[in-house]
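Handover notes (outgoing to incoming on-call)

Open items:
1. Phosphatase: sequence verified, structure written out, both below. Nothing else pending on this one.
2. Nothing else urgent.
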Amino acid sequence: MNIVVDTHTHTVASGHAYSTLTENASAASRHGLSLLCTTDHAPKMPGAPHYWYFNNQKILPRFLEGVGIIRGVEANICNEDGEIDLPLSSDPLLDWVIGSFHEPIFHPSDEASHTKALISAIESGRIDALGHLGNPNYPFDIERVLSCAKHNDVAIEINNTSLIGNSRKGSEERCDRIVEVGAKVGVLFTTGSDAHFYDQIGQLQLAVALLEKYNVREERVITSSTQQFLHFLTLRGKPRIAEFDSLY
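Phosphatase structure tokens:
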């Protein structure tokens, strides 16, 4: 399976990552990626920037080092109502919004609470993908959440860092189950390195291997071509990005 987009990456702005956007873009170019989503942590995460940082991504060039830049965020799912930690004014200024659980913001609770929060976040219409769902601290009803994601055209991220085993320990088994169920339900998958240093950009081998294990077709993986990814954004109601006309 060929992957041309890394949809989950961090820069120094996240507070605990170590590379600049230009360094990340250069690494993406070396790995043959066509598009790079820059998705720093949203404001409630300790060390994260103010929401102005995300709203001001409009000043970024659409291409760096020959790689198309997708302006995004990894937002925090804050409560059972599915609220995220950005104002509504940010939404039209962002191309790509991941919604994730992080322990400092949403303290782990029980399966019912996590399931309600995820479904509420999906149904809010504000997130395009759910990030690193394999975290064993957040059990949830996999079939209910993935069915809801399919119905609402929200992508399910397969997070390569979760599969390495040095972050969110114990995620591998749950990630496996998520892909198994997702393949049956027919969700759309996305692939993210969750890079916090430039040499992790485009490192997606474990995510790809897991998708291939369950025979997930490339047309269900939105990062397998620029056309699929950009058309997914329009499916989500995002405006067409004129600078990427040749990539649609």
